[in-house]
């Protein structure tokens, strides 16, 4: 295991103690690597919308349906063909119609604890360190590298925090050891974002295409921010700490059921996210904008007695569009019940490396960590998912 990460660990205590982290060496590398990193990052000219499906979107009821699985496993929603080389759940017909514009990775896994905070850290920072050192969100790293000198910030967070109040660091949506200067900006905190969030300037046709609901508004604001030069947008589709409907479908109240996805979050998400991908393409912005739709884990293959699915970090699916990604393909494969990868396993750190690749970040470069320790942006040897490009 690397000195910096717990992403490969096989226990719920993944990571290293803070004292050991602070005693690590390599502090002299920072000054040498930073100029090259800054140059490489600015050269790609690409932006990113990281769509975070907090709560854990069920892969079996979305991007990896198993129509031939036993009744207690297969989704109550039919699998439908798409414009790509894969099927999806019929909860997402609008995505099926534009599947040639995005690709699915169906073999994501980690073996740390199947907890929201652990999974959220891993999927947005590539690492977990329970000892107290918090790694920065990938968007905060981009902010650090491309500090905006324009009118708008480099990294904006939409949809509020997925974490409990004051706990954003433990869920991977803050700047960690980079410090509060590089924390994501929010519309509530930034008056200079007022124009971007003024949706009255959009045509009614556009607003209705995205959806006249909270997700429609968020995704439309994300497009407007990208259009105005914001480098990185993190969009939370649900905040289960604020009482919003989330993907955390355990079944027993206050959680929703698998069946309730049909009239809940799924149709809003299908409409809003597909609209943003189409809109970016029509405006000539999709090639220069990576859309990464992630969640902290999937859901259990077996539908429980309450009609829900529980946390499952052994296998799940994520989606990528734009930013040089080729559409219409499925990378990796899960077993017959969606319980484990059987081909091309992918870890959270590979997801982060893929985002950096699309945005032109040198994955061998370093950040200034605690006590001047040089921290690589991803663990040495970590590869991007090259099959996407």
Helix and strand content put the structural class at: alpha/beta
Mean pLDDT: 87
What does the radius of gyration come to?
20 Å
Strand adjacency order, main sheet:
5-6-1-7-10-4-11
**Distinct helical segment count:** 9
Oligomer: single chain
Helix share of residues? 10-25%
| Contiguous runs where pLDDT drops below 50 for at least 5 residues | 1-16, 22-43
Q: How many β strands by DSSP?
A: 15
- Ends apart, CA distance between termini: 28 Å
Morphology call: globular
Please provide the ordered H/E string of secondary-structure elements: HHEEEHEHHEHHEHEEEEEEEHEE
% residues in beta strands: 5-15%
Largest sheet: 7 strands, mixed
Brief digest:
The chain is α/β, with parallel strands linked by helices. Helix content is 24%, strand content 15%.
Descriptive report:
The strands form five sheets. Strands 5-6-1-7-10-4-11 form a seven-stranded mixed sheet, sandwiched between helices. A two-stranded antiparallel ribbon has the order 2-3. A two-stranded antiparallel ribbon has the order 8-9. It is an alpha/beta fold and 389 residues long. The longest helix has 18 residues. Strand 12 and strand 13 form a beta hairpin. Helices cover 24% and strands 15% of the residues. Helix 4 runs parallel beside helix 9.
């Amino acid at each position: 295991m690397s000195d910096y990460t717990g992403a490969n660990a096989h226990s719920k205590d993944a990571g290293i103690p803070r004292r050991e982290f602070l005693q690590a060496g390599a502090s002299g590398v920072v000054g040498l690597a930073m100029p090259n990193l800054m140059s490489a990052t600015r050269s790609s000219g690409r932006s990113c919308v990281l769509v975070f499906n907090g709560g854990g979107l069920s892969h079996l009821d979305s991007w990896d349906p198993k129509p031939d699985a036993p009744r207690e496993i297969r989704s109550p929603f039919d699998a439908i063909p798409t414009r790509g080389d894969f099927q999806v759940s019929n909860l997402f017909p609008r995505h099926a119609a534009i599947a040639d514009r995005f690709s699915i990775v169906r073999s994501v896994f980690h073996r740390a604890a199947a907890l929201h905070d652990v999974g959220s850290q891993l999927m947005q920072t590539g690492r977990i360190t329970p000892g107290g050192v918090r790694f920065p969100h990938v968007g905060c790293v981009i902010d650090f590298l491309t500090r905006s000198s324009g009118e708008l910030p480099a990294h904006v967070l939409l949809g509020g925090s997925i974490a409990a109040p004051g706990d954003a660091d433990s869920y991977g949506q803050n700047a960690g050891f980079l410090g509060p200067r590089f924390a994501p900006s929010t519309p509530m905190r930034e008056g200079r974002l007022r124009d971007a969030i003024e949706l009255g300037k959009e045509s009614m046709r556009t607003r209705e295409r995205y959806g006249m609901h909270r997700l429609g508004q968020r995704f439309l604001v994300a497009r407007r921010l990208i259009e105005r030069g914001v480098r990185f947008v993190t969009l939370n589709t649900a905040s289960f700490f604020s009482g919003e409907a989330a993907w955390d479908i355990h079944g027993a109240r206050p959680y929703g059921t698998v069946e309730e996805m049909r009239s809940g979050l799924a149709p809003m998400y299908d409409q809003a996210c597909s609209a943003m991908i189409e809109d970016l393409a029509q405006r000539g912005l999709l090639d220069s904008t990576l859309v990464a739709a992630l969640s902290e884990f999937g859901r259990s293959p077996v539908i429980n007695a309450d009609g829900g699915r529980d946390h499952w970090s052994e296998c799940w699916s994520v989606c990528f569009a734009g930013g040089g990604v080729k559409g219409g393909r499925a990378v990796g494969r899960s077993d017959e019940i969606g319980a484990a990868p059987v081909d091309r396993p992918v870890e959270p750190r590979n997801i982060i490396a893929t985002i950096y690749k699309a945005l032109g970040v040198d994955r061998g470069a370093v950040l200034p960590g605690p006590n001047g320790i040089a921290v690589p942006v991803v663990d040495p040897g970590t590869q991007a998912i090259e099959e996407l490009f």
